[in-house]
Amino acid sequence: MDLQTLFALLAVLLVLVSALLMLVLDNMIGAVAASGVVSLGVAVLFVLLHAPDVAMTEAVVGAGLSGVVLALGLRRLGLWRLDAGATRQSAAGDEPDA
After folding, report:
1. What is the rounded CA–CA span in Å between residue 6 and residue 14?
2. For 40-94, what is each residue's pLDDT tens digit?
3. Taking Cα atoms as reference points, which of 35, 42, 39, 41 lies closest to residue 20?
4. Domain boundaries, the chain
5. Any alpha helices (H) in 49-77, and if so which ranges?
């Protein structure tokens, strides 16, 4: 197995793990960060496939711009807090524990 194949397998593993984390995380900011990691992993795969122009576009748009837009959307909706439990309690009308 050559070095390029090893890097490709590691990038695919990174993308798969990050995509699964994005689905199961309760923390919305963590899910946005995981989506950025997915985009960066796909950008690495594009570099390994000798498509640097597509890789740069994926990194800028996928990880950069969409991450910022998603984070701003979470802030606008009031879901940007790091503590997922406090968000659920306040949404249910309960007072958070002091």
Report:
1. 12
2. 999 999 999 999 999 999 999 988 899 899 989 988 988 777 665 555 555 555 5
3. 35
4. 27-79
5. 52-57, 66-77
Residues 41, 11: contact at Cβ < 8 Å?
yes
* CA separation, residue 9 to residues 38, 41, 50, 95 (Å): 14, 11, 16, 47
Quick one: tokens of 56?
A: 């740069």
CA distances 17 to 10, 13, 52, 75, Å, are: 11, 6, 24, 26
Radius of gyration, alpha carbons of the chain: 17
Token representation of residue 90: 């306040």
* Cα separation, 52 vs 58, whole angstroms: 10
Any idea what DSSP says for residue 95?
A: P
DSSP 27: -
